[in-house]
């Protein structure tokens, strides 16, 4: 099978003018080079390197100058990595034709294709507010963790995991359900996750739902690694200055102004990454916008990344008043 150096190959390809696009083929490394999660930020946890003579499956190509390839590196943590094209050669390269790509974008298919996330949303729950006010009483009684809290069997005074959601901008809220595989968490992972996703203390229905709808749309982690990363991210916020401020006022209220100031001490634009959701101005959830290469723990700065959004739009159900009530666990 004939190989081409990437610059020569790209001279043979025409009509590609859109953003980073799906591609197929084989990349053959000719030298040892860095393999980045984000080539623009030069992030390479691990670190991972392409090895001379080894073949890698091509998943995507950067459209700006067609210099970067996204390849799959089995056995590497977060295995979808970007390498420079001049690090090797490509074989059997195939790019989506414009018309075909537009058809896929207009269909549901692209929004159920795993590994194409451009960011994440971390949804964390204030469980007492969620069980008491977000759900009506009939639904609350259907959730075993809410029943346990109501009876006093379970006392929760920290933030818990709702979900870690891979996001693809062009799909809006519809990026999900990329596979039907059920979770199969190890006992070690379950022990770690249970305090931070209390439904797991009674069943795995909600965890399985989150994995099938959201977790299957990323390809860098198996179910154990995905839930571990999500829990560590929740703990990062829980232990941050903002998380401590909220938890210090359980049964009372916090001031929106002071809450935003705690976030600004991490980064002036940090509040743009956060949406605080309320029912009757009682906190039940926080949604945090994260970059695709976010670093969970130990700091909030690493979680939201060095360049938080410059602007933000209001989310449905955001807390609207100056004081936000923090519900206490139990009756």
UniProtKB/TrEMBL annotation:
Organism of this sequence: Azotobacter beijerinckii
Signal sequence segment: 1-19
Family affiliation: Belongs to the RNase T2 family.
Region described as Disordered: spans on this chain: 299-331
Lineage: Bacteria, Pseudomonadati, Pseudomonadota, Gammaproteobacteria, Pseudomonadales
Composition bias, Basic and acidic residues: 320-331
Keywords linked to the UniProt accession: Signal
Protein name from the UniProt record: Ribonuclease T2
Gene3D superfamilies recorded: Ribonuclease T2-like
GO terms for MF: ribonuclease T2 activity; RNA binding
Any GO BP: RNA catabolic process
InterPro entries the record matches: RNase_T2-like, RNase_T2-like_sf, RNase_T2_His_AS_1, RNase_T2_His_AS_2, RNase_T2_prok
